[in-house]
Design goal:
alpha+beta, YdfO-like fold, six-stranded antiparallel β-sheet, 6 strands
């Protein structure tokens, strides 16, 4: 696995709006075991058999302010819209920040994405379905 291949997966999956299970599987196949994204400055760190890789900040994204109130329903509605292709990744990040999500952690082995508010007691877990 080389960093160029990982970079290509990230770029193409966002540009072409891949369904998340497809992107997830491509990352697993590339050797990613987990990754974490800090929303405010979009610090995305991928870990795996290759070591650690930091994703460049997406074009058009400026620093975001995380709402101190964790609005789980607003977050879930924004996530559904994003999964339906109604928002870009950058738009989704802004909506996520407004809903009070500060970071998310993806665990490939457990097939989970855990979204955390500023207070770590505020969180929401999504399970990533297998591709059919």
């Amino acid at each position: 696995m080389n960093y160029d291949a990982l970079s290509t997966i990230i770029y193409v999956s966002k540009k072409d709006k891949w369904p998340y299970p497809k992107k997830f599987q491509a990352l697993v196949d590339a050797g990613v075991t987990s990754y974490e994204v800090k929303i405010d400055r979009h610090q995305a760190e991928y870990r795996g058999s290759f070591g650690t890789w930091l994703e460049p900040t997406p074009e058009g994204l400026s620093d975001l302010t995380i709402n101190t109130e964790f609005d789980k329903n607003a977050f879930i509605n924004g996530l559904k819209d994003h999964m339906a292709g109604k928002t870009t990744y950058v738009e989704w990040l802004a909506e996520t920040a407004r809903a009070g999500v500060a970071r998310y952690v993806v665990n490939m082995a457990d097939r989970t994405v855990t979204y955390y508010g500023i207070n770590s007691n505020d969180f929401h877990v999504e399970h990533v379905p297998k591709m059919s």
